[in-house]
Structure formats: C-alpha cells, structure tokens
Amino acid sequence: MKVDMFDFNLPEALIAQTPLEDRSSSRLMVLNKQTGEVRHETFSNLIDYLNPGDCLVLNDTKVLPARLFGIKTDTGAKVEVLLLKQINEDRWETLVKPAKRVKKGTEISFGDGRLKAVCTGTEDHGGRQFEFQYEGIFYEILDSLGKMPLPPYIKEQLEDQDRYQTVYARERGSAAAPTAGLHFTNEILESLKVKGVHVAFITLHVGLGTFRPVSVDSVEDHDMHVEFYRMSEETAALLNQVKKDGGRIISVGTTSTRTLETIARANGGAFLAGNGWTDIFIYPGYEFQAIDGLVTNFHLPMSTLIMLVSALAGREYILHAYETAVQEKYRFFSFGDAMLII
C-alpha cells in the first residue's frame, strides 16, 4: 500500500494557528462509516449522536511545558532543549537545538541557574540525555520556565498555555496534546453524563513521533514510534460492562484509539487494567476490536493518523470527507475543527 494514496490538497490558510475562544464552538463533521454520508454540525451537538449506555473514552494525559531555553555555562551560547521522555527521576531524553554544540559533559543553565542540566550521553536519533540539577520541586520549576511544545505547523504564539491542555488533563507526561479532546468543556461532559453516556479515562503519553512524517514509500515499511499507556481497574471494568450491555465505545482521539486497541488485541477483545508501551500501527486492513466510533481532528496528508481514520471509515470515504472539509473551509490540525466517525 503506497503512502501517497493518503495524500490530499490542503491550502495552508486552513491550518488553524490559534484556538477558538470557546472550545465547544468548533465545527463538527459527522461521517457515517457505513455509507460515507457527511453532516455538518457544531461540536456542542455531539451529544445528539451518542446514546444512553454508550461510553466516551478520553485520554487524560497532561502536556509538559517541555520546551526550555537556556545558555551553555562555558560560552553563553543559546540552546533550546525539548524534553521527550523521563528515564529516571532527574534524567531525561531530549532533543536539542543546535545539537552539534552540545557534547557529553556540556552544562546548560536555565532561568538564571534555577535549573541546570549536564549532558550525560547521546541518542541514535541525534537526541541527548541530560541529568537535571535544581533545588525544590522539578515540575514547579518546569511550569515556571518551560513553554508549551506546539507542533511545527503552528507559527503563532499561544497566549494562554492552558488552551493546549484538555479540561480533564491530569497525568503529566506528554510532549504534545491529545488534540481531539481540546473541544470538550466541563459543561459538555456533564451533559453527557446526565444523558446516560458513560465517560471513562485512559492515559497515553503522546510523543513527538506523532508528528514524524512517514519517510517510506510503502505504508507497511513504516516503523511506528513507541508511547507509554495506562488503564485503571475502574476503566477496564466499565468498558467490559458497556460491551456486555451492547453499548458503543467511542474513543476521543487517535491516542485513545491506539491504547484501547492495544489492550483489546492482547486480551481477546476484552479490557484489562495495566500499563505498558505500544507501537501499534493502524492502517486500512486492520480489524478493530475495541472501538465503535471516534472523535478526532483533521490530520496531515500522508500521516499515520489519516491512515488510522481510513482504517475505521474506509480510505475513499475519508478522502471524500476531507475534500468536503477543504471546500467548506474547515479548520485543520491541532487547533482545528473535529470529526465524528460513527
């Protein structure tokens, strides 16, 4: 299967650079995965498409303000460090710009010395490992000094850092937001519960690999990035009961989808509490075992994410829906509009 089968024309003007003032005022395209029919709604009308007994599954990961700007203590040269993965308490895997200036033993100072980092090693992908030194609580210092690691296609500054967090974010660890969840407000979540729709939470810490372009010609040759996930006993029990009772499981975002499918595949379609690492790659031909529907944003051409939604709704239906979205001037990517595939 060729990667360019998932290409489409996207005018740059449709890439949303800033979030809407009201989260739930985004547009919502509803795609019927059986017929390809498209409807145009507002996100606040999502409740009309969910039934009592259905379950909405949200990723409660919290984005770290992982972009740090510092100086090399020996030369005063400016360096940007992006936290990727915590190896142990004070050691992190990172990306550095400019990387060639940072060798093993290099010390970098952030915030006039409130936080310091010493390079302890290099990674195969050109990254660096750092041991951080500080007094106090690391995450409080990070909240003070760090900036949100916005995707590379967003050029505008984000005035309110919380707009790149979901309203239910609570588990620190992501290098990017699970952006399908950005449309939800506490009021929408409460109205869903009142209707009898279950709301469950899982955790998958989103890595920067989610933005990594597919660099091979054939889909099957792509190596998927690895991300950490966790499911609680409470969520596993609820999802198993929903399935037993004939309700639908609707995942919010591709991250929730990958977590649910990873767990269900390992347990014969059932859900089991636990944590681990997933590199699941979902593309057309994949048989879903966990989800019945998906709330998602509009994705990049030829990305693993558009391949995932094509696996759920069919490539032709997805490309037709995206062509319609372009014609109707939907907003694309992280701060853009939403799609419900059901």
From TrEMBL:
Looking at the keywords, is Repeat present?
A: no
Write out the GO MF terms. S-adenosylmethionine:tRNA ribosyltransferase-isomerase activity
* Keyword Glycosyltransferase (UniProt): yes
Its pathway, per UniProt, is: tRNA modification; tRNA-queuosine biosynthesis
Q: What keywords are assigned to this protein?
A: Cytoplasm, Glycosyltransferase, Queuosine biosynthesis, S-adenosyl-L-methionine, Transferase
Q: Give the Enzyme Commission number.
A: 2.4.99.17
Enzyme class, spelled out: transferase
The subcellular location is: Cytoplasm
Show the catalytic activity: 7-aminomethyl-7-carbaguanosine(34) in tRNA + S-adenosyl-L-methionine = epoxyqueuosine(34) in tRNA + adenine + L-methionine + 2 H(+)
Mind telling me which InterPro entries this protein's record contains? QueA (IPR003699), QueA_dom1 (IPR042118), QueA_dom2 (IPR042119), QueA_sf (IPR036100)
Complex formation: Monomer.
Q: Indicate the family of this protein.
A: Belongs to the QueA family.
Q: What does the UniProt record say this protein does?
A: Transfers and isomerizes the ribose moiety from AdoMet to the 7-aminomethyl group of 7-deazaguanine (preQ1-tRNA) to give epoxyqueuosine (oQ-tRNA).
The protein, known as: S-adenosylmethionine:tRNA ribosyltransferase-isomerase
| Organism from which the protein derives | Bacillus norwichensis
